[in-house]
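Format notes (please read before filing issues)

Several people have asked whether sequences and structure tokens are stored in separate files. They are not. Every record keeps both together, in the order shown below: the sequence lines, then the token lines. Line labels are part of the format and must not be stripped during preprocessing.
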Amino acid sequence: MPTADLALRDEYAAAVERLAGHTLDALRGAGGAVAPAPAFPGTGPLPRPVLAAARVLGPDVLAPQALGATGPDEQAVLLLTEAHRAFPPSAFPSSPATPPSGVSPSSADEERAAGAALVTAWRDWGTAVLLARALGPAADALFPGATDEHADPGAPRPGHAPHPEPYAWQSWSVRMAQLSALALPGLDGPVHDAAREHSLALARGAVRSLLRCDQRVAARLTRWLAWLAADGQELPLEVEPMLERIRTVGDGSARTALELAVAERLLTGGAS
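Then the structure lines:
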């Protein structure tokens, strides 16, 4: 990979960490807004890395508000709105890139591309639901039909949820980890129904990830378990010891810390 590409990737990754840190501070009541100051109107355009970071975090940018840790956050709403304008859903491919002439894409490549598109679509749905509540009728400009009284709140839902097969709980739990930003109060749909139906697969995936020292995936799946506990579901394991273990051996990133903080807030009854 060229040096310039590596530098750009590092810049975008650092922006995601910074935004996750801002969100974590807001969730913990440390003061300050989720979005950086340039998100205010009239202070100049936001850098693209900041907008891309908001697209990466998606619904979690509004997690402090959804969990009742803060009041309405105009900056965070504006940041997500601008991020969706800069990086609209159509900017994310829903199918594999066209292969070179004479080369056929493998079924594995097609499956990965379809899975990535499904994750993006569901995360956009979650963002749309939260933004529709914050923006009201203005949300229709970004998400057509978002405030249609005859439609599901937020936006049209993707075609299906990532239901697992009995023999494929490992890959399904990884997919659910990628969708952990949907584990927030006020969001409910087929993905959440799948979590309710397959809590054992989530628990197995969380423990497996912890044993494999994949702390972020473990934190994300434990967040789903915390959401289930807040939803009144019976769980196959205790969530608090899992959170404590992940905190102890954590990877030190703001993104993983944010997953843990959301899970903790869910367990203590945080809700919008």
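For reference, the curators noted about this record: DSSP finds eleven helices and no strands in the chain. The longest helix spans residues 107-135.
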